[in-house]
Design goal:
The chain has 71 residues and is mainly α. It has one helix at residues 26-47; strands spanning 52-53, 56-57. The protein starts with 25 loop residues before the first helix and ends in a 14-residue tail after the last strand.
Length: 71
Amino acid sequence: MGSILKPKMPSLPPPAPLPEPPELTDEEKAKIKAEQDAIERRRKGRKSTILTGPLGIQESEETKLKTLLGE
C-alpha cells in the first residue's frame, strides 16, 4: 500500500576496484615478518594467563580440587 506513494531508491554505484599492492623489497618483507612475530609472541604470553574462555573455565576435570563448601 505504501509502495505506490514512495519513490524508488536509486541503485548503488559499483564498488571501485582495489588498488594493486606495492612491491616490497626483501628487507621490507623481513622487517614486517619480524614485527608480526613479535606481536604473536606478546599475544601468546597474555593468552597463557587467561584461565577462562567463551565456554567458561578451561580446566580439565582431573585438575579440579574439591573445596569444603562446594564439591
